[in-house]
């Protein structure tokens, strides 16, 4: 008897995505080597988004289900986390944005890298313009992703993220901070609670860049540097403080607890003490060239309280 193809439930959050949704759904239907299903939630669209999804469901009977509860406007991150919580247990789970195009082997390639232990795979992005013309590739990380480095900088674009059932349970182990990003929070919990994140350098998604991207990407060093400088020290330290507080409720490993304990030293008023705490915790940017900027911000400012609004995308 031949092996059954991997089973993947795709989780799609939509909001006024009619312009590009048809292409994304077509790329889902074209996935090779897996048995896929789709669970989707709409965040209050006023365009043809829901009609497009209903047509897709009719063309793929038994494969498409709508999550109607919770209803109302939640925002992208909370909508994706509601989908993850409602996902069918077992198999694999993949976040999907409404405006990209998946490459045909996206899900099968991720499935081939995931074992039985808690594990997630993310990939590089192929950046394209609204007409899918190439703009370049997202950068490769210079370090292996782990809990401490992910606290500094998220490399897991949600549209590339595929996780197994044990990792899904870890990603739901503590409430996400209000206004946070589902991909960043998921990989912090997965790696902090004993799971593993794999970064695959092979792009899996045509990541469409347009005026209404929630986050967007940058392929050139100058663009990425401009973004980092624009956020400043507070733009890096405030999300870190909010994540640290929220992670206190998670069933972290002893190693992850030690990381958070060391990072409390970033509240010290003495800059050199803060730099030592950063080093002991292993807090490091995935791009080695950006590590000097992270150090400069830690020297310039102590870790603030987490009373600010939202978390933003970090460094």
How would you describe what is shown here?
The chain is of the alpha/beta class and 315 residues long. The protein folds into two domains: 202 residues, Spore Coat Polysaccharide Biosynthesis Protein SpsA, Chain A; 80 residues, no CATH class. 39% of the residues lie in helices and 16% in strands. Strands 3-2-1-4-9-6-10 form a seven-stranded mixed β-sheet, sandwiched between helices. The chain has a four-stranded mixed β-sheet with strand order 5-11-7-8. The longest helix is centred in the last third of the chain and has 27 residues. The protein is globular, with a radius of gyration of 19 Å. The N and C termini lie far apart (50 Å). The C terminus is likely disordered.
**Secondary structural class:** alpha/beta
Number of strands: 11
What is the spatial order of strands in the main beta sheet? Answer: 3-2-1-4-9-6-10
Strand percentage: 15-25%
Cα Rg: 19 Å
Report how far the terminal alpha carbons are from each other: 50 Å
- CATH architecture annotation name of the largest domain: Alpha-Beta Complex
Q: Uncertain segments of ≥5 residues (pLDDT<50)?
A: 216-221, 309-315
Series of H and E elements:
EHEHEHEEHEEEHEHHEEHHHH
Nearest-integer average pLDDT? 92
Helix content: 25-40%
Main beta sheet: strand number and arrangement? 7 strands, mixed
Number of helices: 11
The backbone outline, from C-alpha atoms, is: globular
CATH superfamily grouping of the largest domain: Spore Coat Polysaccharide Biosynthesis Protein SpsA, Chain A
CATH class of the largest domain: Alpha Beta
Kindly give the count of domains. 2
Would you tell me which CATH topology of the largest domain applies? Spore Coat Polysaccharide Biosynthesis Protein SpsA, Chain A
């Amino acid at each position: 008897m031949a092996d059954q193809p991997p089973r993947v439930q795709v989780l799609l959050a939509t909001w006024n995505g009619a312009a590009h949704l048809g292409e994304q759904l077509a790329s889902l239907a074209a996935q090779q080597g897996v048995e896929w299903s789709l669970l989707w939630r709409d965040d209050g669209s006023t365009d043809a988004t829901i009609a497009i999804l209903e047509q897709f469901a009719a063309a793929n009977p038994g494969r498409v289900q709508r999550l109607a509860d919770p209803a109302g406007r939640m925002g992208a991150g909370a909508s994706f986390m509601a989908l993850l919580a409602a996902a069918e247990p077992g198999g694999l789970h993949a976040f999907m944005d409404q405006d990209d195009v998946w490459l045909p082997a996206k899900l099968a390639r991720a499935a081939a890298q995931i074992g039985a232990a808690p594990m997630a795979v993310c990939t590089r992005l192929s950046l394209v313009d609204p007409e899918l013309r190439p703009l370049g590739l997202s950068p490769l990380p210079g370090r292996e992703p782990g809990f401490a480095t992910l606290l500094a900088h998220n490399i897991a674009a949600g549209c590339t993220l595929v996780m197994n059932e044990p990792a899904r349970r870890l990603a739901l182990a503590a409430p996400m901070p209000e206004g946070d990003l589902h991909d960043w929070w998921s990989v912090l919990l997965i790696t902090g609670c004993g799971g593993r994140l794999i970064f695959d350098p092979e792009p899996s998604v045509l990541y469409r860049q347009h005026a209404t991207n929630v986050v967007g990407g940058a392929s050139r060093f100058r663009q990425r540097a401009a973004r980092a400088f624009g956020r400043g020290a507070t733009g890096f330290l405030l999300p870190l403080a909010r994540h640290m507080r929220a992670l206190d409720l998670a069933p972290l490993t002893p190693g992850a607890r030690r990381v958070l304990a060391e990072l409390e030293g970033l509240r010290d008023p003495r800059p050199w003490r803060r730099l030592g705490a950063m080093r002991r915790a292993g807090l490091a940017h995935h791009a080695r060239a950006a590590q000097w900027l992270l150090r400069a911000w830690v020297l310039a400012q102590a870790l603030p309280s987490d009373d600010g609004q939202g978390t933003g995308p970090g460094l």
